[in-house]
Specification:
83% of the residues lie in helices and 0% in strands. By secondary structure, the chain is mostly helical. It has 2 domains: 185 residues, Up-down Bundle (Growth Hormone, Chain: A); 202 residues, Growth Hormone, Chain: A (Up-down Bundle), CATH 1.20.1250. Helix 1 packs antiparallel against helix 9, helix 5 runs antiparallel to helix 9 and helix 11 runs parallel beside helix 17. The longest helix has 30 residues. This is MFS transporter. Keywords: Membrane, Transmembrane, Transmembrane helix. One of its GO terms (cellular component) is plasma membrane.
Amino acid sequence: MVSDTAARTSIGRATLLVAAIALTAFSLRTGVTGFSPLAERIGAELRFGETVIGVVGTIVTASFAVFGLLSPALARRIGLEWAMVVALAGSTAGTVLRALSPTTEALIASTVLLFAGIGMANVLTIPLIKQWFPNRLGALSTTYSVLLQVGQVLAPIVAVAVAVPFGWRWALAIWAVPLAVAAILWSTAGGGRAPGATAARAPLDRATRRRYWRTPTVRGLVLLFSMTAFHTYTIVTWLPGIALDAGLGEASGAALLSFFSAFGIAAGFVVPALALRLPNPRAIVIACVALLAVGYALLAIDAAAFAWAAAAALGIGVSTFPLCLTLVHRRASTPEGATFLSGAMQGVGYGVACIGPLVVGWIVAGTGTWMPVYVGLIATLGITLYGGIVASRPSSVEADAEAIRD
């Protein structure tokens, strides 16, 4: 009887935790893509323009970088589960406050709160999956990746569909619901000792970390991820605005953003499998860089006529994102090495990504045209290509570090 009760309790908790993971993953990008197609509508009411839209895009990536780096310290203090509850509660509050914003300043402040929580949740979700479901990592990691993309795809469509009859405030506020439910689920089901919980590993010593930073593996991955994030968040922030300026309308801009994001779902399945089979996956990098160049060129030639083809090329082009995540596993032979690679890649990468949306806003506001933006974005692809080729070489951060003498 006791055994049956324990089994039912275990199954019930597992179900709640899977639901918590699913809702968390779904919510990680809704605040980004659910805002972009409404930005000009909101700006018309709150009286801001392209520069502020660029600032909002920069806040997203800055929060991912800063609060992603801070989240492990909070998790060590209160545990992974309660750190996640704090993160999601903050994001829920930020979402509601953003929808209620009476001024541009209030909108910016609430956006910081929203993405501070999301930045932490980005980092906390994967170790929580490992901790609670050590024997289901593949299935739940795939679920996480796919639902993240599903949320990113659906958010702009739902946002416009809600904003037209009910206004932009309701279109922003609805995303507080899955965040709040996820926070409740984590607080309800996340107590107690997880089956995969283990003692924390000793951190790498300072000398080892210095050697790691000097390795081609780290530098290549940091460059590749940085430029991938730079391009991704520039596109997510500005693609609806490009559509509007081309005369396609708000609904078309939202649909284009969803179309662009949809390719991330397929990439989550295809790219990691290819990267694991190829000893040197530089062909993936070359193909992605070429497609990004084609996408920007099509927008430069005629954004209205080639919008859908450009969105498809750009959507496939940023498939270097799942490639980076896969290369963390392939380019580290120890858990400590993988942890260092992931932290360095995301911390620096999202910091670099802050630049894209902001600079684009300045350029468009200053010149009144998108052409300098397209030229600049194509030029930066050289850095992406170089970083990707270096990161793709068959090696590991540990092996590279062994060859370095202080």
